Amino acid sequence: MTMTDDRSSQKQAFGADVARLLHMMVHSVYSDKSVFLRELVSNAADACEKLRYQAIAHPELLGDDASAMGIDITIDRARRTLTVADNGVGMTAGEMTEALGTIARSGTRAFMEGLQGDANNADKAQEAGEEAGKDAGAGAGAGGAHLIGQFGVGFYAAFMVADQVDVISRKAGTDTAARWSSDGKGEFTVTPVDLADAPAHGARVVLHLMANADEWLDPANVRRHIREQSGHVPVPVTLHFTRPAPQEETAQDDVAEADAESTARPDEAVDEQIVDGSALWTRSRNDIKPEEYADFYRSVGGMFDEPAMTIHYRAEGRHEFSALLFTPSSRPFDLLDPERKGRVKLYVKRVFITDDADILPRYLRFVRGVVDSADLPLNLSREMIQNSPVLRAISQNVTGRVLTELEKLAESDADAYAKVWENFGPVIKEGVHEDFARQERLLGLARFRSTASGDAWRSLKDYVADLRENQTAIYYITGDAATKLENSPHLEGYRARGVEVLLLTDPVDSFWVMGAPGFEGKPFRSVTQGGADLDLIPLIDAEARTGGDASPEVAAFIAAVKETLGEAVTDVRASSRLTDSVVCLVAPGGGYDRHMERLLAGFGRLDQVAKPVLEINPHHALTEALAALPADDPDFRNDVAHLLLDEAAILDGGQVSDAGAFAGRLTRLLARAARS
């Protein structure tokens, strides 16, 4: 909009169907009305940081006001207004029309895009900022704006508590000011104002509060919400309000005189700094209270729980940076979304750059926090940042530190670590599959349920320490549920020997375990694949009957079943893993185990499933009875062979290949039993 010389105001419609959009947003998008205050404070902080950044190259923008940037919040009970003011960069009338008159228009985003499009200006600002940083000392910051958020719909949250919002602003370096005003019902006006009624530079947002918004006239309530939601903003925040003058006790005869005197006595003006403007991550750990860490975690991570683990350190040497990271104590609902990004914000010299940098690998995407580098240049594009050797070095350091802190927690507080693992174990195990360089460390962090653990978690270190005599591998079984796996016939021979088997129920388990070389020299081996290799491990009960040795009659029966089934199976053999069940299916050695085959087939990633191996328990009473029957009824032998295969398929969690043929065989077998 172009301002007219006669200082007339013009009523305009928002750049969208705003009457409906604002109502929907105010009443649906935000469930907590207090969010408006956080958004206004964040926007004000952005404006201050923009001016601080621009003033590095153009100090004249500050004019006579060389004081530090700041935010002032004023409560006026008499006028029922709440004002959020800043001495930041400000806006022209045209910029207010564009930024505040178009829903979801992001001034911050446009500012950053402008910076990236002006590399020369950014270079100058950076050089000036480095000099300013030397003068100001560590933590003072130099070279850019701490851009907190993406200025869009957040501003309009003010209409949840206000029936009118006025924005009076003057852009730094200009000699005009304007007022933007709206009731949030679809229209707004932009009017010129006298410079005497406007800030020297910056903006003043005045909320005319609704009748049901009295809580925002309470200094204690405003103070609490700012400290909880905006205590980390990088500029000071000062609260201004009036406190009623104290009334002195008077004698009865002096009541009238005292009333007249108290009426004339002015209320007490209070100016209280409630945020000091120092970035939390730049402060010493010894100076930060646990509740401050928790408040910052909720703010930066968008969480509502308490952090399970806090990592705060400063790296010095070849690359200098500060990191403040948190592990949540609850699982985000979208944790397993394959498109989910990490939540670590990247700053350069306290200047917010991006929240989309690959600082941590995907398997640590649950970690929240910030990393602030002193070595990255401010004018790099996101693509250049991602390819920066400095960022790669920082990423290596931060990733290693997170894993170290997880290892320390596992060592010092097993119960606390168990809760972390319950929430984030499935994604940490993705790293075993993806991060070969850290595979051994990640396996050390892994925890499992097993046939020996009950409801407790077991580490691989615990497992290896309890290996049975002659046991040379770490055995596992994969599936959908631990209770189902515990009843698998594949475990019978292992239980008979006291061999612990890991129960792997996360979908990622079938993938990482195939690529993992082992742990402490012990390979991983599926109990549903290949030979069981159990003969050298002694039985707990020496009288138990297990093993692959079969009598001549049983061996002949097994050979006959193999001949009958033909190409339906890869092999039929005597089982050394069964003690109670008659049959089971296993995968051939050298390929995928049974569960992995089903997963890949379900994803359409497997063109042909390998034919299974049918194992028959040579010592089971039914096997011996079937082997003893005369071999003069080939139809009966054919039915028996296929019924054994169908039974094994059902025990394996699958289905019979031909339901009609299965029913026919079962009917004939029952009829034969009835006649005998």
Describe the overall structure.
With 676 residues, the chain is an alpha+beta fold. 37% of the residues lie in helices and 18% in strands. It contains 21 helices and 22 strands. A hairpin with a 6-residue loop joins strand 4 (162-170) and strand 5 (177-182). Helix 20 crosses helix 21 (659-675). The model is unreliable at 1-7, 104-109 and 118-152 (pLDDT under 50).
Helix amount: 25-40%
What is the CATH architecture term of the largest domain? 3-Layer(aba) Sandwich
From the helix content, strand content and strand pairing, which structural class follows?
A: alpha+beta
Query: Assembly type of the shown chains?
Result: single chain
CATH class of the largest domain, anyone? Alpha Beta
State mean pLDDT (0 to 100 scale). 82
Fraction in beta strands: 15-25%
Q: Using the CA coordinates, give the radius of gyration.
A: 36 Å
> Taking strands numbered 1, 2, ... along the chain, how are they ordered across the largest sheet?
1-6-5-4-7-3-2-8-9
